[in-house]
Design goal:
By secondary structure, the chain is an alpha+beta fold. It folds into three domains: 262 residues, 2-Layer Sandwich (BirA Bifunctional Protein, domain 2); 48 residues, no CATH class; 93 residues, Anticodon-binding domain (Rossmann fold, 3-Layer(aba) Sandwich). The protein contains 13 helices and 23 strands. The structure holds zinc ion (ZN).
């Protein structure tokens, strides 16, 4: 494998070349740390989200789905603590106008003092003392830009779940313990974003809030922690040696959390968090009860006990998980003296499942290939490619992570069989074209 920093550059370049990820507004020079998913990227991310939704919502009787709006009542963010506490201490350079986190290790000296040195322009004494800066994006609702109409783009999807918890409980006739799952966009005005799609200002979360009786929260916390790790390795196929838990120390714990574990992946730029499991106690529901004046406690029908439920949260970044899958899939290898770059996605999450190639563009091969392609894409996302040598077409699909390459050759027009090339083993088998869909289906399930 290439050195780590180099690996990230290669991945960014492949992501653009093959249509996974593009920089936002690139023709205007790009917008800082905002990214767009191209034709292959949108499929990959969608497949990951669909698998999450299936395991969380469809395969469990005790979790319901929700899609809450991005804009919420401003009081929500007062109750959640985000207005007062969701802040970073920042310093400005009065000379070059750059802004940094106060704990940026590149800053030499103490910001606000004459000895402090700006890490960008190198000026001394130009850094301001740290000031608190809220990370929520603000916007204005209605035609007048007046304070009364200030709303925020949500910095997490979780609050949409808390404020709907009674609606869901009553309409679904669930009983505690039960959960609510949601996939949606969230926004944070990060001051030091970076590392490709790892830290971005607009991102998508896959969050599940599990409501439990106080006292059972520790058990459920352990359950969900292990369940999530099992899913990442068993379902997405992430290599077990590349993921680990990191338990938050007292200092790292968020204001609402009693216990928290990050799930970290060994990215080319080091171990970093891409999912978290948090015991949020009754903090959020109790605060919403206080701020809204509405009763949010639960009456246990079995014991007649009343309590405000505790919440165990599993919070994953859809973009970060997609980046994990990309990094984990990337392989370079030597095939017969030639370098091959291949993305080894699990077939279930690969953007394209199969590519269909006529060996040459004559002798009835393109017509047969077209018919086979139409048949295959009725069942799964497939690609047709008749450009260039067959070796180059295989190579392009290796870079796209397409698990199966189907070639229609001279023999195909005689006996109706095609070759199916396996992306990982490079083994080729001949399959009767009328059995092809079944053959692929068996390998794409799971
Ligand atoms: Zn400066």
């Amino acid at each position: 494998m290439p050195p780590a920093d180099n690996l990230m550059d290669k991945l960014v370049s492949l992501a653009k070349r093959r249509g996974f990820v593009f920089q936002s507004s690139e023709i205007y020079g790009g917008l800082g740390s905002v990214w767009d998913y191209g034709p292959l990227g949108v499929e990959l991310k969608k497949n990951i989200k669909e698998r999450w939704w299936r395991s969380m919502v469809h395969e469990r009787e005790d979790i319901e789905g929700l899609d809450a709006a991005i804009l919420m009542h401003p009081k929500v963010w007062e109750a959640s603590g985000h207005v007062a506490g969701f802040t970073d201490p920042l310093v400005d350079c009065k000379h070059c106008k750059n802004r940094f986190r106060a704990d940026d290790p590149r800053i030499k000296g103490t910001p606000g003092q004459p000895d402090a040195q700006c890490p960008v322009c190198g000026s001394r004494g130009t850094l301001t003392a740290p000031r608190m800066f809220n990370l929520m994006f603000k916007t204005f609702m209605g035609p007048l830009e007046e304070a009364a109409a200030v709303v925020y783009l949500r910095p997490e999807t979780a609050q949409g779940i808390y404020v709907n918890y009674l609606n869901v409980l009553q309409s679904s006739r669930q009983k505690i313990p039960f959960g609510i799952a949601q996939i949606g966009k969230a926004f944070r005005n990060e001051i030091t974003p970076g590392n490709f799609t790892f830290r971005t200002r607009e991102f998508e979360q896959m969050e599940m809030q599990f409501f439990v009786k106080p006292g059972t929260d520790g058990e459920w916390f352990d359950f969900w922690r292990h369940e999530r790790m099992k899913w990442l390795v068993g379902n997405l196929g992430i290599r077990a040696e590349k993921v680990r838990f990191h338990q938050h120390t007292k200092l790292e714990l968020a204001h609402y959390a009693k216990d928290a574990y990050d799930i970290e992946y060994e990215f080319p730029f080091g171990w970093n968090e891409f999912e978290g499991i948090h015991n949020r106690t009754d903090f959020d529901l109790a605060r919403h009860q206080e701020y809204s004046g509405k009763k949010l406690d639960y009456l246990d029908p079995a014991t007649n006990e009343r309590f405000v439920p505790y919440v165990v949260e599993t919070s994953a970044g859809a973009d970060r998980t997609t980046l994990v899958v990309l990094c984990d899939a990337y392989h370079e290898e030597d095939v017969a003296g030639e370098k091959r770059v291949v993305l080894r996605f699990r077939p279930t999450i690969a953007p394209l499942k199969a590519a269909v190639f006529p060996l040459v563009n004559k002798d009835g091969m393109p017509e047969l290939a077209r018919r086979i392609y139409d048949d295959v894409r009725n069942h799964c996302n497939a690609f047709y490619d008749d450009g260039g040598s067959i070796g180059r077409r295989y190579r392009r699909q290796d870079e796209a992570g397409t698990p199966f390459g189907i070639t229609i050759d001279g023999q195909s027009t005689q006996d109706g069989t095609v070759t199916v090339r396996d992306r990982d083993t490079l083994a080729q088998v001949r399959v009767a074209s009328d059995r092809l869909v079944q053959f692929l289906g068996d390998r794409l399930r799971g």
